[in-house]
Amino acid sequence: MNSVLELLVLTLLINGAFSAKILGIFQGFAYSHQQLGNKILYELAARGHQVTAIIPGPFAPKTTIKNYKPVKIELPDFIEDKIPDLYKEAERGIINRVLYMDAMGIIFGEMVFNQTTVQDLLKSNEEFDMVIVEQFLNEAFKGFCYHYKAHCVVVSTIGTSRWTDFQMGNPINPSYMPDVLLSYSNNMNFCERLVNSLTFLLATVNFFLFTLPKHNEMVQKNFPGAPHINELYFNSSLMLLNSHVSINSAVPLVPNMIEIGGFHVDPPKKLPKDLQDYLDEAKDGVIYFSMGSNLKVKDMEEGKRNAILNVLSKLKQKVLWKWETDSLPNQPKNVHLRKWLPQQDILAHPNVKLFITHGGLLSTIEAIYHGVPIVGVPVFGDQLMNTARAEVGGYGKGVHFKTLTEEAFGNAVNEVLNNPKYMENAKQRSKILHDQPMKPIDRAMYWIEYVLRHNGAPHLRTSALNLHWFQVLCLDVIVFIAFVVFIVIFAICKVINIACPKGPKKLKLQNKAKKKN
Ligand SMILES: *[C@@H]1O[C@H](CO)[C@@H](O)[C@H](O)[C@H]1NC(C)=O
Ligand SMILES: *[C@@H]1O[C@H](CO)[C@@H](O)[C@H](O)[C@H]1NC(C)=O
Description:
By secondary structure, the chain is of the alpha/beta class. It is built from 21 helices and 13 strands. Strand 12, helix 15 (383-393) and strand 13 (396-398) form a beta-alpha-beta unit. The relative contact order is 0.10. The structure holds 2-acetamido-2-deoxy-beta-D-glucopyranose (2 copies). The site of one 2-acetamido-2-deoxy-beta-D-glucopyranose has 4 residues, from helix 5.
């Protein structure tokens, strides 16, 4: 009896005894970013923490949620102009993409600080114990942690990258860690490593010399009296990463970087009756087609769309296609359109044989979770890298949107449908993702509350964060050793010179002279 009581008290102490005040800042304007942020913040609210969330209005919950208060921000019209046609994004070169992302980050940051709702929140005497901020080109938001004297938790909507590793003092090495904006997997040949290293160098120099100082200006403007951003940027207590070894390749992680990939996936729910029947009755299987929530398939160039339709029309499988309009020119008989589809629940159906996707990370994770092979048609951002990983992992094929032809797309689709290796590898990955000691969302909660319990958990920080970059790379030591070696060699030469002042050359000449005599 006593031990049961003790257990109860202990459980209460760990779970319910403290309710923290938490500010969540997920400013990413895309549904995929918000889906991740909301999952974490709703779960914290459900556990009794008081959550305030800075969130773009369109993504705020429609109903009131207990313990959860949204601070809505608007996305001004100019966002539409500044975000180019996403399909065009595929045409940009890598240097352009790197500089463009950094520049976008500064505009997004200003945009959030310019909102009256955010300024009102800053002026109010609201207090927070913890600030959870999405890592997305928004370094200036570290100022919120300073402003509230709150522990900083960072959530990366992708795995590790130069956006995550520098600030946590995590090892980063371009020889086997491809840049997020490139289309490489972790197995790179010499040329790829060369391009990757140069991209890494350019992006790093641009970030620390030009981008971070701009974020510092934003910090100084919005949080008067704040220290330089260099003191805030490297001071996060915890980083949660939307990655896992079943999805990403294995990389080193310092103890306060925790992988929670797959946390957004819910257990499959019952499908609507018509969809259930459609999937049950597909004796040759179903191909699920979706380009995610940002890309509109109707904006896709007609030639490429027809190439895709021609390939699909020749298949015996049924195709379930997420499409934003009611009809589709040249729609084949086996293609069924819907404006909205419950993607996770469809992928859970055993008759789904293939997922044709833009290669977005959440779609890729859902495919792995349910063990469905993919054909990726990547367009921008990390989609190229996700698709490259699927190819190396043997659970998918990629056809870059930029170079999509009927032949290339047809080959990829038929290869994945007809070679059982892809399905087997997808199922294997799924097993790895599910084989974990605790559910990813529970792990996220555990570590967030751990940071609260241990007052910022400074013991998890690596000492690399206390050193300058050249000290981390041992450059100072190398220069010192090189200097000492030089001095020693120099001294030896001097000693030889003193001991034999005539030197070897002179001796030889003298010998020659002697011989002549
Ligand atoms: C933010 O406000 C300032 C001052 O009103 C203005 O100059 C700037 O263009 C605004 N920035 C954005 C991204 O809205
Ligand atoms: C760094 O983080 C710790 C732990 O959360 C906090 O106590 C400290 O004030 C922070 N430092 C700065 C400069 O904000």
